Fold these 3 entries.
Entry 1:
Amino acid sequence: MQLRDVRDILCARWKTLLVCLLLVLGATAAVTANTTPDYEARARVFFTSDVKGYMLTQSDLGTFTELLGTPLIVNPIREQLELAPGTTLGLRGSLSANGSFVDIIAHSTDPRVAADAANAAGPAVAAVGSKFAKSLGGGTVSVTTVMPASPPATPTTPDVTRNALVGVLAGLGLGVGVVLLRHFLDSKVRTDADLRAVSPRPILAHLRKIRDMTADRLVVETDPHSLAAEEFRRLRTNLQFVDVTTGGKHSFVVTSPMAGEGKTTVAANLALAVASTDTRVLLVDGDLRNPSVADTLGLEGGAGLTTILLGRAAPSDVIQQWRDTSLYVLTAGEVPPNPSELLGSAAMKSLMSSLLDAYDFVIVDSPPVGPVIDPVLINRLVGGMLLVVTAGQTTKRDLGAALRALDTVDSEVAGFALNQLEGGGTYYAYGSKEGYGHNQGLAAKRRTRRGTPARRVRRPVGTDAPAGP
């Protein structure tokens, strides 16, 4: 797995990452709020003896610092400061770098008590120091305060800044771990990383989820300035580059691993996107088991591909022009009992050859590749295969099985279209809700025209221009 794959996974599951981060930060904030503050005050003192010519040794000063935390020093200071029972008080000491001074550090939940205890500890140690410095020979120890302690303004614990930083790091670490664990345990395809894990073929498009499949299913026609329509135009452009590497037949079969993954919607919008460049495009409904192109485009589907293959009509009799565009549609016709035999017949091969010569671009909508062999039969007649994978719906097992089935018969996917991605609540490209250069009147007119009947075109196969309706 590459770094960009991890990035894609984290972006796809950013909500999980955010929840983990907030939970850890919340727990950190609760612990910090419930932690009793502890204040630290520090005083620096200098010990001397009254024995002439004698200077306290490092051993003597070390003994004094050891005395600071004992009841011998702490209890008298508690009595001196009149502290209530249960009041926290801790003392410790350390020698300075040159060994001549002693730093006394006092801890307490009250900053004033910490400062007073640090200032009182030096004289308390001096009062009993001569008992533990045997080399003094009965002399006494005096103390000079070099730097008195003052009440601290902020507690040493809890450290809010440190705790917040630790909480952020722990939350991110937990979130990344949970996201990656969910990714590897997830059975659905959701990101580019899932596709790259099973196939090196390129991802040609990221298609956002169409919210209203009734009004905006043909988003390239109903809302050509939207981001959703732009994604289909990007798919059109990418397919042109792929077409160069797949034999230049200017034809693709659109399929999916399993049913219900939006392949017909992708095929129809892709055909409209190609037709918008004044290219003569033929959309063929090759799904002879469950045809849906006619319903999607609002066309008559009683006669079509099966009618031609049975010799009951010529292509020019059943090919229909979609409105006043350069898109032509060959519906499936009647559902036959033997779809695979028809698609693999010599008649189908001859028909596809003539259609590839007659049109600039041919797109074939086929059944899903997982359950049936039909897409493989069609793929042998066209330039390449576009596999539509639905994010959050297609399972990794179904995708892997479909690719293995294609590999068994030496068929390769030209590229993937990752479909139904969450793209937010609007599809508009610039600025306002209407988008840049969006004409509401024109869009409304287009929506109204969807209810007009399609024109049937009698077009001789092999000619350059279509005949009249």
Entry 2:
Amino acid sequence: MRKYLATAAVLLVVPSLSFGAGFALFETGTRSFAMAGAFVAVADDPSAMFWNPAGLAFQDDKGTQVMMGAILIAPQQTFYGEPPYPGEGYSTEQKDQIFFPPHFQFVTPLGERTTFGFAVQIPFGLGTYWDDDHAGRFISKRVDLMAYDLTPNLAFDLTDNLALGVGVDYRISTISLTRNVPLVDPFSQQVVDVAQTHIYTDGVGNDGWGWHAGLLAKLGKGVSFGLTYRSSITVDYEGYADFFQFSTGNPELDAIVAQTIPFGETISGTTQIEFPDFWIAGLAWTGERVIISAEWGRMGWSSFQELALTFTDYPEFNESIPENYHDADQYRLGFEYRASQSLALQLGTLYDETPQPQANMTPLLGDAARTSVTCGLSWIKGNFRLDLGYEHLMMKDRSTEGTSVSGYDGRYESSAELAGASMTFTF
């Protein structure tokens, strides 16, 4: 029985690094979102604070800018069972969910060649939500994760054609996981649900610091080059687990369970997690009415090779879990057409690799390489700008092919619809 408790505790922090490409939120700023994020060499609005902070230096003629908005994300995922468990013929769908990660940017010039910016961004987030009785409920029924970044920036206009941006990132992360605890009934030899565990962090103290820098160069004839680096961020987590007993219908078994699992007691655990660093490089061409932008990025997921867990009250459960993630590339292409002084249209497409090994796909995250198409429009009236965007995201069908490390094999089919809106005010 204590082994089942250990299994539950092990999942305390697993969701925090189970987000691969599917949990990375590169949708800061609706106009850049509508260009599929191909913005590192454009960086001409306040969302440059995420894509390339150097771009702020070339915006000093706009005065003070405030951008705020959110991206609506509606994911869908279906799981089809394969041998050995849960076997062919089994299928289940995630429950409907809608997420609204917000973004906020403030930009103001500090002088002729220096610009200050501050942003609130969510670079990682989302969650999964399955039926209470689905076959993978002992791995996860519901998980929610958010990573919030508070980001001050300084951008310097080194020359008329070259700018540098630097800043720091203060990250706060929260996790919540609900799952069932199984037990083989010694009387019937059947697996029964004996408890539910709710595993969570409160956000306080679950934080870390990182830094970022960007370079933007205007090469002439409308061509620009952008380069951004964001460092890895190490977060020290403290999490908690509460257990709630289920009646099995067998009073004798229920009594054994009640004596073994610490119902009414909060179990604590700690770990240290390194969020990946990433590079983005790109080229853009800006004409009288058209912007064409292309970029490549790499996320350093290979830093996530294992997960070391420490349990204060149960040191016998301390262990290191292999994860074996690998670095992942992404490719983005974006377009903007300025139809008039008050209207602009955007299009884009991207391809994003997954860092998650095939054997590690679970109900916590069944990730895969993704492709998407985006579109949007911008309406400008005086000192006000409204940006609207839409993205259709398609993930490659992917199967564990009998290799699942959790013993839960099958194929995941996934997609998502995203819609965004941002407002920018200039003073």
Entry 3:
Amino acid sequence: MKKNLPSLQIADLTINPPIIQGGMGVRVSRSRLAAAVANEGCVGVIASVGLGKFEDESGSEFESINKEALRVEIRKAKSMSKGIIGINAMVALSNYESLVRTAVDENIDLIISGAGLPLELPKFVEKKNIKLIPIVSSARALKIICNKWKRNFDKLPDAVIVEGPKAGGHIGYDFQDVVEEKASLLDKIIIEVLEFAGSFDPAIPVIAAGGVYNGKDIAYFLKLGASGVQMGTRFVCTDECDVHESFKRAYLSAKKEDLVIIKSPVGMPGRVIKSKFVEDIQKGKTKPIACNYQCLKTCDPDTAPYCIAKALANAAEGNLDEGFVFAGSNAYRCNEIVPVKKLIDELVSETEKYI
């Protein structure tokens, strides 16, 4: 059945259906989800951010707790699947290098890296055959990465994920542009990136992300020239998603108007589902923090209105009154929780219909 779709080829990895499950943190996409997705021929991705119960520990333990938690999740995923397993590592994290090196030690198949330009990523991988995939929101960003990697490491990205403004979580666009819907649409950015990515021999595969919801969307981007898609939102509403049931139910009960953009202490806009906590943020009511760990390079605990790490950890554990749920612009369209296999079979048959 899946043979009818074109494969996503990333160096010597063949991915069919051509779908990457987006890395979703904190503790949303872990080993169980990643393994289930990989078992269907797609790429399963563990979000490396905040996997350890860091909020209960002293700041000095932050790096080691999260490093070991990532190691455990990678090993679990590999024990449950012979498919392709990757991690997502945010450049903005203060323990970014530690997480990347841990994934390299565990012989992860690929590393996806965004929330900043991963200019030093090849340095941490050495000579291992691990695919490196930056996330960008413009052709300009990809050019900067390619120039830097080529000059310093004689390396080019094995693929590139182009994330549009409809993505969930942190979005690499100007806050006002996202709120007023002035940011360039994904298809326009994809076309620009394809032109540059195609100038290499072999061409760098381009993967569309941000607002990709169903098979019709997948077919659209494949016909546009993308080699595959990355999807996050749909995988939250699966049996195997590692997050608390209350988090999943927030998707099922969300209406379109409940999806709002907030200013994150990371310095980026973030798309979330409205909650009491979100309303407090929007009203300027701060949630005082005593930060022990400085998990984000760009966060100043003295001026941050709230601790995003704790807010996301709270939500992942089901405490939605003290946190918020990241979600893509189509989260309100989710109406049931299904097994990963059923979701992917449905996406494949829809894609075939439109391709």
